[in-house]
Structure formats: C-alpha cells, structure tokens
Amino acid sequence: MLTRVIGRLKPLILGTAGTVFLASCATNAPQDTFQPKGPNAQKIDSLQKPVFAVAGIIGLIVASAVVYSIIKFRDKGQPIPKQSHGNPALEITLTIIPALILAVVGVFTFRTVFDLNKTSDTQMIINVTGQQWWWEYDYPTNNEYGITQPIITSGQLVIPVGTKVLLRETSRDVIHSYWIPALNGKRDAVPGRITLNRIEADEPGIYAGQCTEFCGLSHANMRMEAVALSKEDFAKWVANELKPYVAPAKDSLAKEGETVFLNQCTRCHQVNGLTREDGTPVIAAPDENVWSGAAPNLSHLMSRNTFAGAMFDLLTPECRSDVWKSESATFGEKYLAGVSEPCLNQTDLRGWLRNAPEKKPMYANPALLADTGGKYRGMPNLGLSESDIEKLVAYLLTLK
Amino acid sequence: MANIENFATPSSAMGALKRPVVTKGWREWVFTVDHKKLGIMYMATAMFFFLVGGLEAVLIRLQLALPDGKILNADLYNQMFTMHATTMVFLFVMPMTAGFANYFIPLQIGARDVAFPRINAFSFWALLFGGLFINLSWFLGGAADGGWFMYAPNSGPIFSPSHGVDFWALGLQITGIASLAGAINLIVTILNMRAPGMKLMRMPIFTWMSLVVQFLLAFAVPVITVALFLLSFQRNYGATFFDVASGADPLLWQHLFWIFGHPEVYILILPSFGIISEVLPVFSRKPLFGYPFVVFSGAAIGFVGWGVWAHHMFASGLGPVSVAVFSISTMAIAVPTGVKIVNWTLTLWGGKLWFTTAMKFAIGLIVLFTIGGLSGVTHSVAPSDTQQTDTYYIVAHFHYVLFGGAVLGLFSGFYYWWPKMFGKMLNEKLGSWNFWFMVIGLNMTFGPMHILGLQGQPRRMYQWTENRAGEGFFNLAFWNLVASIGSLILVIGVFFFLVNVFITARSGKVSPLDPWGARSLEWMTSNPPKEHNFDSIPTVRHLDEFFHRKYAEDANGQMQQIATAEEVLKQLEDNADAHIHMPSPSYWPIVLAFGLPITALGVIYSVPLAIFGGVIILFSAFGWALEPSTAPDTDFDPPSSGDTSKDVVHVG
Amino acid sequence: MNTTTTETTDSHATEHGLSTSGYVRIALILAAITALEVSTYYVDFGWLFMPALMAMMVIKFVMVVSYFMHLKFDNKLFSWLFYTGLFLAVGVYCAALATFKFFG
Amino acid sequence: MWFTLDNLATAHDTHEGAAHSSTGLSNVKLGMWLFLGTECLLFGGLISTYMLYRGRVGTGPRPSQVFDIPFTSVSSFVLLMSSLTMVLAVSSAHKRDDKSTNLWLVITALLGATFVGGQVYEFTAFYNEGMGFSTSLFSSSFYVLTGFHGVHVTVGLIMLLALRGMLKNNKVPGSRAETVEMIGLYWHFVDIVWIIIFTLIDLIPA
Ligand code: HEA
Ligand code: HEA
Ligand code: CUA
Ligand SMILES: [Cu+2]
C-alpha cells in the first residue's frame, strides 16, 4: 500500500528526493548503501527509499511554511497581532497526521525486521570472526558445496551467488561490525556472543565492506570484501582451498623462504600442511604471541587479492582493476587466477614484512604491551633483513 | 548600581571556618552562592570548553580534508573525536544549559535565588573541576580513546592501556554529581519557589522545558553513574564486569550507557527548545501558539525518551523482537517533537516578525533541527539503520540536531538575554554575520555528511582512502573537502561571536530596560538584575505576565500599550520588600568540590591520595552542615532594624 | 498535576503519623513477614515460591515507605517524585534484562 | 544528605514566618524525596548487574556455597528494626522531646553499626572462602552491590552521629525536627533497599 501511494506521488518524490540522491547515485562509491546487489539489501532498500521520500517531503513542507511566514509576516508596520493562544482542533489534526504516517512506516518496518531475521532456509553457514584488525572466515564442512574439510581464510569472503549464506559472527577481542553494504546491513561481531547475519549475492563480483564498530587503533583499516562467484567457480575455489600443501622446489629461493618462514612466522601464522624438516606438522594455533590468539591463516594467501584486513591490495593496481571491472561472465575466471608474480603488489607486501606496524597502526610495540603480558595486537616488526624479505616473498608466492 | 557590594556583608560563621567576609574582587566570584553569578560562571566555563571542543573538531576536519590525512596519527585521532564529543556534550552544551537554567529560572518564576544556593555553587565547581580533570589526561599520557560511548570491552584496561579512560570515567562521575545536585536543586526551585500566582501552567516555557530536563538528569545520571563505576572498578581494581574471558556480556555496558544516553540527547535539546519558545513569541509579538501542547509534548518527549535507548543498538544482535519494539517506540518520539515544530511555525504565522539575531537563530533552529529530526526518523526504521549506523549519515544526524538544534538555540539565547545579563546589547550587525557564517558553515560541514554516510563512509576513521571514494567529480573526496572547508567557515562564525562579545564589553550599547518588548518575568527587573532579583515579588496573573502589564486589548480587540516597562518596574520598586535576606557566601562549596578530583586522582595513582580527598570531602561536609545558609540577622548590613534602605536602584 | 493548589500549610508529621504503639505494630508485622520470607529458604513452597517471595518483598517495601517514611500521610507530590523514580527504574531495568533473555 | 541543611526557604521561614513556598512543602523534603527517587535508578542498575551476573561464577564459589542465610537474616532483621527506632526518633523530635530523640538516634546508630559490622564479618568470611573481589563476575557484582549499600549505611551512620552531636550542642541550623526527619528518610531508604537486596540476592537461589 505504501508503495502504491508512493507510486502515485512519484513526480513529487522524484523532485524532492532527487537532489539528495543525484549526487549519491552518480559517483558509484563501492560502499554505496543505495545499490543493493542481493535480496537482503534489496529489502532494506525498498523500505528506506519511500521513507527517505516521506522525510524529504515533510522537511520541504516545514521549510516552506517557515519561509512563507518569514516573507509574509515580516514586520511591515502592521499592528500588534491578536494574542491568540492556539487552536486545539488544528493542533490535534497536526498531531494525528504524523502519527498516522509513522504508523504506516512502522508496519512496514516491523515486517522487514522479521523478514530479514529469517534463517530457516539457510544454505551455507560461514563463521566470521573479527579480530583487531582483520576478519577470519571459517567454512564448516558442507557437502552440498564440496567443502569436505573446513576452510579458513581471511580478508575476502568468498561466496557462491544465489545462495542464502548465514554468517555466524563473533569476535576474539573487542566488538567489530560486519558490513557489506551491497549485500546487507551491519551486524556487530560481539565477543562472547554469536550474532547472525544473512547475505546473498545476485551476481558475481566484488563487494566492498568495512568494519563499522569502533575497535581501537586501526579500526579505519579494518576492511573486507565479499567475492561472489558463480556456483561452478565457487566449486573451483573450494577445490583450490582444499589443495594440499606443495612444498617449494629444492634449492629455490622459495625454499629458503620456507626456512625463514618456519623460523619467524609460524609462531603466529598457520600454513596447512607445512612440516618441519623432520616431518612434524607445524601448528601455529592457539597462538600465544597475539593477544586474541590468532593470526591470518596463510595457506592460500595468493588466492585472495588483498591482505592485512583488506587494507592493501595483493595485486598491483592494474591487475586489480582488471579483476574488479571485469564482466560478470569473465569475473570468476579472473578472480580464480589468483596472484601471480607479475601481478603481485611487491611494494606493500615487502613494506609489510619490513615493518608491519609502520604500514598499519597496531599495538605491536613491546614497550606498550606490559598490560597484555607482552602479547602483540597485530603483527610486530620482525626486523627481517632485505634478503630474508626477498626469500619470503618468493615463498609466499607459492602459497596459491 | 548602588551599594550592591556591601549589601550582603556576610557574618562570622558558626562553622569551623569563618564565613568569607569580603565580597569584592575575585572572592566575589569564588565564594558566591548567587545564582546569577554562578550562571555566568557556568556559561563562561562552557564557552571555554566550546572553543576546546571546536578546536578538536577543526583538527578532525583538517585530518579528513584529504585522503590519507597526516595531521594526526591514529592514536591521537581516536583521542580527538572521543574528547571532542565528550567536551561538546558534557562540558559545553550541558553546562551552558545549566548556566541558562541557573540564571533565568529564578528570574522567570519570580524567585530570589534557587532553593539550595550553596549546592548550586558546589555543582558549578564540581562541573569545572570535573571538566578540567578529564582534560588533564591530555598531559598525563593521553586522553580517552574509546569514542564517546566508550563501548566495552574496547574501553577495558587491555585495549586502552593509557590512563585516558580512567580520567574520562572519573571525570564524568564528578560532572555527574554536579548534574545530579543541580537537577535536584532546580526541580525543588521550580516546584517550590514560584512567585504568588505563578501556577505551573503560567510558567515560562523555558522554565518548563528546563524542569523536564532536570527530571531527565535526575533519573538518567544515576544510570551512567553505575556504568562508570563498573568501568572504574574493572580498570582500577581488577573486577571483570566487561571482560568476556570471565563470562561478561559487553552488551551490559551498551544498555547502561544508552539508557542514560538517549535521555541525555533530550537533555541537550530541550533547553534550546525552551529558549526559542521564549524568543519566537517575543519577536512575533504573539503568544506561543498552543502553550499547553508545547508543555505536554515536552513532558511526553521526556517520558517516551526512556523507552527508546536500544535504537543505538540495532546492529548489535538484540534479536528481532527487541529491535522491532524499539524501532516503533523511537518513531513515536517524532510525534511530540513534531507538535513543537508545528507550534513554532504557527507562532510565526500571522505574527509581526522582527528579525533580530536572536530571532534568526531561533528560526534557523526550526528548519535545521527538523532536518536532523527527520534523519533521526530514517534511523528509527531499524532495517535501514543497519545500513546507516556508524556511518557519517549518523554523524550528520546528530550534528544537525546538536548544532542545528541545541547550539543554535543557545546562540539565540545569548543574543536574547545578553542585555538582561550584562546590561548591554550585543551588536546586531556582527550578530548577523555570526548567524550567517554559522548557518552556512554548518550546512557546508554537516550537509555533505549525509551523502558521505549514505555512500558508505564509516565514522571514526582517522583516514579515508581514495580507493573507496568512488568516481566522478562529486565523489566522497569532494564532499569530505567541502565539509572541512565548512568547518573553517564555522570557525569564522564563532569568531564573529567572540569579537562581538569583546566589542560589546568594551564599548557596547547600553541596553534599555526592555529592549525586545519581552513577555516574561525575568524582564521585570533591572538589567542586570539586582542581587535580590526583584524589589518586591510580583504577583502573577497571566502567562506572559510582563506583556499583560504592558499591553491590554482595547474595545476593538486591538492590543494597546497601557504601561511602559519602566512604569511596571517602578511599581514594583515602590512596593519594595522591607528587608530581604539573601543567602551568604561560603567557602564550603568550592572546598568540597575540590575534594572530588583529588579523590579521583588518588583512585588512578595512589590510594592515600584518595583518602586525603575523602577527608577533604568529609571535613567540608561537616563545615557546611554547621554553617547556616543565611547568616543570622544581626550580621546583616544594613541591619534589619526596620529601616527600609536597601539595594533599590531606580531606573530611567 | 497542578501542585500550587495544594493547601498543606504545615508538614509536621506528628499530626498525621502514627503513635508509638502504631509504629511498633508495623515493626512487628514487618518482622513476621521477614520470618516468613526466611522460612521459604527451608520449607518448599513449590510454585508459590517466587510469587510469594516477591509479594512479601513488595509488602515490606510499601509498609516502610508508607508508614515509617510517612508517604501515606504526606503530600502526594512526595509520592510522585519517589514512585516516578522507582517505577522508571523497575521498567527500564526489567526491559533491559529482558533483552538478555533474563526472564526465560 | 548534607544538603538537608542548605535550605533557602527554611531561612525565610524562620525569619519571615510565612513559608515562601509555592506548594507549602519544605524544600529539603522535596529535595530528599527526589534524591531517593534517583537512588532507585542507581540501585536498580547495580541490582540488575548482579542479577545478570549472579550465575557467572567461573572457577569461584557459587552463591549458595558462601551465603549464610541465618546470619544474613539476623542482620537484615537488625536493620529492619533500626527503621523502627529511627521512626521513633523522628516522632520524638516532632514532639520536641530532645531526650528521647537523642536516645533513639543512638540506638538506631547502634543497630546500624551492628549491621555494618555484620557485613564486614561476612565479607571477611566470604573472602576466606575464596571469594575475592575479582574472583568472578558474581563476586564482583555482589561486592559492588552490597558494598554500595554498606557505604550508604555508613554515610547514614555518620549523619546520625553528627546529628546527635549537633542536637546536643544546639548547633542545628534550621528546623531540628525536620533535620531529624530528613536523616530518617534517608535511613529508611537504605533499609528498603536492603529489603529488596535480601530477597533477590539471598533468598532466591541463583
Ligand atoms: C540533540 C540531540 C538529539 C536529538 C533531539 C535526537 C533526536 C532523534 N534521534 Fe538521534 N542521536 C543523537 C542526538 C539526538 N537525536 C546523537 C548524539 C546520536 C548518536 C550517538 C552516537 O552514536 O554517537 C543519535 C543517534 C540516533 C540513532 C542511532 C543511530 C545509530 O547509531 O545507528 C537513532 C535511531 O533511531 C536516532 C533517532 C532519533 C529520533 C527518531 C529523534 C527524534 O527525536 C527526532 C524527532 C524530530 C522530528 C521527526 C522532526 C520534526 C517533526 C515533524 C516535522 C513532524 C512530522 C514528522 C514525521 C511524520 C516523520 N538518533
Ligand atoms: C554538542 C555537540 C557537538 C558539537 C557542537 C559538535 C561540533 C562539531 N563537530 Fe562533532 N561530534 C559530536 C558532538 C558535537 N560536535 C559527537 C557526540 C561526536 C561523536 C564522537 C564519537 O564518535 O565518539 C562528534 C563527532 C564528530 C565528527 C566525526 C568524527 C569521526 O567519527 O571520526 C566530526 C567530523 O567531522 C565532527 C565535526 C564537528 C565540527 C566540525 C563541529 C563544529 O561545529 C565545531 C564548531 C566550533 C568551532 C569551530 C569553535 C571555534 C573555535 C576554535 C577553532 C578554537 C580557537 C581556539 C582558541 C582561541 C582557544 N564531530
Ligand atoms: Cu573492527 Cu572496527
Ligand atoms: Cu537515541
């Protein structure tokens, strides 16, 4: 009904709301809240657009009445007006009208709230864990989608299109909030609680998001992206994630990198299947050096194209825009190609390895860590030599 | 001014210390219990903190003007917005409204002072010391950095290891005590100290709105007191109230904060609603349209405001039932607020409008607050709010209601009541510049934030990145720059005000007795009022008593002037009361208040210091208790021996 | 609502308080209820336990407030001030607890 | 509270005879009732925190393991009876019977002190049973709630004793009966808070 009324008032609404929205729609910002790309965000959008229009109209009415009064009743030497104290009938009418408008809005709000909280037809569950200042995704086994073993990734959430995905969110430290505007509104990730958030994407593509609950120093740098792949592509992605570890060839630079990695990085980072020389598997978790107990799992680092809380691209800008702007049809293919050496964003990755806290503010300075028992939040500066970095980069490139 | 200085020569005390006997120089202010002096001190303090908070805001805007801003680092930025909000909310708007309430409520209801004058002084000093205490953290290892609602567990000792949050929590505790004491004081004053005939429904609307506000304070402050205590016990004494590892639920903090926090936003806005409800009728030459509706809608806002707090938590996973309920209750609040907007507009309607600076600010409030209120209604639609929350769209909402609403109302009050408080008129021309720069600046600053937010720029980001700014000329980079330029225009606007005050103080125009043709009781005395406010307490027969003493309807139903303000005042003077006892100055309020920051410092740094602070508090409470509020008869000058010489200043 | 119409001239409580024996009687009732309350700890009251305990708590509360604190005899404005705070507290905090699924 | 003594209207009363008060009610009494109203929100918050957390004991003792119902019942009873003696003090004060006022005030203070003493004893016992302030959410919220109440009782005690001293030395500014009555109101409030705490915390098993 609301929509029908709105429909009839269309010209007026377009006129008023247009000014506000014109700028909004023209610039194609990646986190625009008016460009839903999935049914959940769509439901919100269908609710909010009419509300914005109503609000715009009311605002215009008030402003016009004030402006009219200013012009009409300015002091032109007229006598002091009659000291009338009001008009209860008018008053009551003008109280009831807004109440009615709001009642209508209320009904639709009510419906949408429950609609968006429906979880009974979920097809895929992904556990999402916030941590200062990145997101971890953990896919429980799901035979329907070929996830025969749990998958753990970070930064980019990969989902199949047209699938009702339920995010079970929590946090390991402070409150964060998961938000991919094109897919749904925000839902806080609260430590000690599990909150539910449902997303579904209509088309393949990359959808930008951002942590929106203030979570300390690098809150501004806690970004994320949702990557929607066609079902077939998603299956390929899963297969890749489940691929066993491939050790670098003997005597390669990467092999030397593996050694550095074993010495420096595995105390925090997990690479599935990585073993020591004697064949014992290397298990980083539970991670004792980081306050919240975990660092990103790097097993398939090169299959995602951002790192460090999606603050940096793992791809060079050219390669990245190639993926981002690709046609829906070719998107999956390009995304699944992962990061290859020519496309690797060497500057930021090397900078990160050289001195992570300088690239991203983190409580990683031992001098400030007395209160946490010397535990890092974020990744510390490991004081690596340039040649170690060289080797590490070569090694990381093998983590397809 | 005749012998105002030696009017209340105080007595020798019955307490432990002698009463202050000098009422000149700085002591006149430091030991005063006069509600008008205290009101001015509140306002001066608030103004100072406005500049501090404004400076912080400008630094924020400079940092965000361009992508990857380098003016502040992440740590400093987080402190900056936390302290900006804390300063503006708790140390600027609240004290400023307390200043107005202090100064004008007794005058508007025809009283000579507040019910508890020494508590009034105590409240002011506690506020000042609390405010300074919070800001002390800047120099002692960094200010609070958790955002103004300080969500747990990010505010806990592990995630915020500096002492900033300790200073914040304890400092707000101190200002909270000040607010609570002030609220009780003013409620009793309004209920009990009204002039004869001043029925509740004849009270000026500013007094009414302040009454609602004081009730909100009285009942909301204890809630944040609890929250702050829990936080301090966690940070300083090892409790685990918000420590998830021990099984705590971080949402407890959110509930406690917002149960306080939502009534708080009405605490911030209702005084300004009150102010413009005084200003609009005066400059429309017409009574407030629908006075009872404005009164009751104010009370309704105060009441419903208690049932909506969880609209700040729509994204926190409350569950659909709670979300739906709080969503609807939030919408309900738009109805009484709408009543006010309607009544103000209808007050203008058919009036004879005089566009003084005060009037301009008041009209500005109607329009700009409505914009902010309407964006509030778009938040109240919970599903939409999950897109909006924690983006700049929220920042836009609350700056429109806070700056476009509360602050414009306060400025309206400055221009309207300046002659009353200081006997001089603020310059109208500078006032006009002040107004236009501020209104343009504020729309330029906060208007683009609607777009920024709806296009996905989250708040509380020390940097934003070109990457997510979108394409085209009108992208987020453009709007961020506009907002930052706008804030500089705001600075100029504020600057005009400061210049205006300065010039007026130096050489301003002396105000006539009734410069605006005012309507309410506070104008029925000299400018500035005498220490005892009224020579004789007027008997009230009308809403807008003063107006009705000046004007009457003639046979044709035309309003005609029947008396000048001077004549009205003369009449009061002629019937002056024989002797008037005013409360006497006292050392105790400031000493007692001083014990509070000492104790708080002790909580942070060393227990013996806290005990020392406690001793100061106890000692001064005793001294206070032993000291009569008003010095005994015999200590008065002039003695109360039936002579009628007292501070009567003849006007005209 | 309009308090100005109240015509209390003298708020001295003696005229409308209780006599000494009256106060003692109230105290005895309070003591008896307390005994009953404590007994719930030892005797199984079944489903009655919660409602009975709550009722006794409220009765004791109201008795102290009404008689010892004279609220029953005093001007209604005092009751307004106090009970506003009380009911606000009960309402707001119960609502908050309800969002934690506290009441099951 | 101490502001009982800071009353402009009273000053007018004593001097001008007629009360300058729109409602005919006393300022301090209005202020006191309002203050007690606000205290409901303070204690409500503390009680709710406790109710939310009482089952969260971590590795520490559970409420039922430490609470000593007979003991707490007795001290609750003592506090309840102090309300009786307080009201008798108020009643004597209104009759201008200084001697019995003093006597009842002292008895009230003694009963109050017994209660506080009992609380100190209980806290020590709990502590010895391994329930420190920061042991668990239950223990912290228990100590904060009952501690706040205890502080209120202690402040009441100080006021009672100070009041008695001031009555004796004839140093009460303003109306004596009213001052006694105000401190009485505060004292009763502390008692009714305990009525709630005792029921919700001790008698209802977590
Ligand atoms: C002065 C302070 C003030 C005022 C008056 C208001 C008024 C309102 N606020 Fe606002 N609010 C804040 C200060 C204020 N707010 C602050 C500081 C925050 C953020 C805190 C933080 O996160 O840091 C906030 C945040 C905030 C949120 C949470 C947003 C979020 O974080 O996700 C919500 C959600 O519902 C909200 C709603 C409202 C509503 C519905 C009103 C209503 O009262 C508005 C009513 C007014 C009108 C509607 C306009 C006039 C009415 C008419 C002309 C009648 C006709 C209208 C209709 C039929 C719609 N506010
Ligand atoms: C009454 C409240 C109030 C007021 C008046 C203001 C006023 C202003 N506010 Fe603020 N603001 C808040 C309350 C308020 N704010 C709150 C509650 C938050 C949320 C914080 C949080 O997220 O925790 C916030 C957050 C906030 C942000 C978001 C920060 C972020 O999320 O990262 C921004 C960004 O632009 C901002 C800007 C401004 C600006 C430019 C002004 C301007 O209007 C300021 C105008 C004043 C001046 C321009 C003063 C002029 C004087 C000088 C410049 C000083 C000269 C100095 C001397 C001579 C000593 N405010
Ligand atoms: Cu995580 Cu903000
Ligand atoms: Cu709110």
Give a concise summary:
By secondary structure, chain A is of the alpha+beta class.
Provide the descriptors you would attach to this structure in a database record.
heterotetramer, A: about 400 residues, alpha+beta, Immunoglobulin-like, 2 domains, 5-stranded mixed sheet, 3-stranded mixed sheet, 11 helices, about 15% strand, elongated, B: about 650 residues, mainly alpha, Cytochrome C Oxidase, Chain A, 3 domains, two-stranded antiparallel ribbon, 18 helices, globular, disordered N terminus, disordered C terminus, binds heme-A, binds dinuclear copper ion, binds copper (II) ion
Model description:
By secondary structure, chain A is α+β, with helices and mostly antiparallel strands. Helices cover 38% and strands 14% of the residues of chain A. Chain A has two domains: 33-70 and 87-117, no CATH class; 123-400, Sandwich (Immunoglobulin-like). Chain A has helices spanning 2-8, 10-26, 39-72, 88-116, 231-242, 253-264, 317-324, 328-336, 346-354, 356-359, 386-396, and strands spanning 124-131, 134-139, 151-154, 156-160, 165-171, 176-178, 187-189, 195-199, 205-210, 223-229, 306-307, 312-313. In chain A, strand 1 and strand 2 form a beta hairpin. Helix content of chain C is 62%, strand content 0%. Chain C has helices at 20-39, 49-68, 76-99. In chain C, helix 1 runs antiparallel to helix 2 (49-68). The longest helix of chain C is centred in the C-terminal third of the chain and has 24 residues, at 76-99. Chain C is flat. Chain D is built from seven helices and no strands. Classes of the chains: A alpha+beta (400), B mainly alpha (652), C mainly alpha (104), D mainly alpha (206). Chains in contact: A-B, B-C, B-D, C-D. The interface between A and B is large, with 97 and 106 residues. The structure holds heme-A (HEA) (2 copies), dinuclear copper ion and copper (II) ion (CU). One heme-A is lined by residues 51, 54-55, 57-58, 60-61, 81-82, 84-85, 88-89, 93, 147-148, 395, 399, 402-403, 406-407, 445, 459-461, 487, 490-491, 494 of chain B.
Beta-strand percent range of chain C: under 5%
Rg of chain A: 27 Å
Q: Which shape of chain C, going by the Cα principal axes?
A: flat
Relative helix content of chain A: 25-40%
Annotation field: number of helices of chain C: 3
Q: What is the strand content of chain A?
A: 5-15%
Order of strands, widest sheet of chain A: 3-2-1-5-8
Low-confidence stretches of chain A: 1-15
Q: Biggest interface and which pair forms it?
A: A-B, 97 and 106 residues
> Tell me, what is the CATH class of the largest domain in chain A?
Mainly Beta
Mean pLDDT of chain C: 83
**Stretches with pLDDT under 50, minimum 5 residues of chain C:** 1-14
The number of domains of chain A: 2
- For the secondary structure, the number of strands of chain C is 0
Q: By helix and strand content of chain C, what is the structural category?
A: mainly alpha
Class of secondary structure makeup of chain A: alpha+beta
Query: Could you give the distance between the termini of chain C?
Result: 39 Å
